[in-house]
Amino acid sequence: MLTVIYLGTGAAVPSPGRDNTSLALDDGEEITLVDASGAPTKRLAEAGLDARRLRRVIMTHEHLDHTYGFPSLFQSLWLSGRREPLAVYAQPETWRFLDRLVDAYRPGGWTAGLPVERHTIVPGSAPVVETPRLTVWADRTQHPVPTVGLRIETVGGSIIAYSADTSPSRAVQELAQRADLLIHEATFLAGQEDDALRYGHATARQAGEVATQAGVERLAVLHFTPRGPTDLGELRAGAASVFAGGIDVPSDQDRIEFP
Ligand SMILES: [Zn+2]
Ligand SMILES: [Zn+2]
Fold first, then answer.
1. Stretch 178-195: mean pLDDT, rounded?
2. From ligand 2's centre to the CA of 147, what distance in Å?
3. Which ligand is nearest to the CA of 20?
4. Which domain holds residue 250?
5. Are 234 and 190 in contact (CB under 8 A)?
6. Distance, CA 257 to ligand 2 centroid (Å)?
7. How far is the CA of 158 from the centre of ligand 1 (A)?
8. Which range has the worst mean pLDDT, 7-16, 50-59, 214-223, 224-233?
């Protein structure tokens, strides 16, 4: 069993009810957080998830809208009495950034606070996380800084893929092969495909193309900032113009369950 909770669905500019993008994966025993924006402990609490079950954090890349809640997560867990280590997974470039970020608040270093289990993500074919319930793979996406997308397989055989921030990417397409759900960013609106490529992002139509090429069942588009009341319909229509499967345009705190 795996529940995907959309803790945030917005792009770098938050809007009412739509904060920066991050995900929680609840396998029934442990919670995996993907990126740490906003106040992660508040979001977990609002989702009804007990932060004591938070076992690991996977950081996809260093950009502010995915990392600024990271020091806050450690501080709030420490203050609420947690002493068990938290596992953190990131690429070496992302680790260098996270170390600087934490150092700004805690010059004494990591050992002065909550124990951290450091894991280095090596993008490629070997799983980065393996538990009795989940296996997670990571590979590099098309973004201006080193960024990983994810493929998550449950013991029940479900497959969920997450693009993180990216332009249309062959690696994401591979990660999403025959997935039950592809969660793909859609920062730009239809007609802005050139801008999307220039800035390392995608439109909903491009997300739909990746979903079709990967043969996925269902597509969820997120990481966007609505500019007007018609934007959500436009996003859905953009994806639907090239993808025949189910399409979700989730809001913050929406969730979807898999065996
Ligand atoms: Zn980014
Ligand atoms: Zn972003």
1. 93
2. 10
3. 2
4. 2-258
5. yes
6. 24
7. 27
8. 224-233
Cα–ligand 1 centroid distance for 75 (angstroms) = 24
Q: What is the pTM of this model?
A: 0.97
How many structural domains is the chain composed of? 1
Find the CATH number of the domain harbouring 100: 3.60.15.10
Q: Which ligand is nearest to the CA of 223?
A: 2
Of all ligands present, the nearest one to the C-alpha of 62 is 1
User: Which residues are within 5 Å of ligand 2 (an ion), measured at CB?
Assistant: 65, 165
pLDDT tens readout for residues 56-79: 999 999 999 999 999 999 989 988
Q: Please answer whether residues 136 and 124 qualify as being in contact, where contact means their C-beta atoms are separated by less than 8 angstroms.
A: no
Ligand 2 geometric centre to CA of 77 (Å): 24
CA of 81 to the centre of ligand 1 (A): 32
Of the chain, the percentage scoring pLDDT greater than 70 comes to: 98
> Separation of 12 CA from ligand 1 center, angstroms?
8
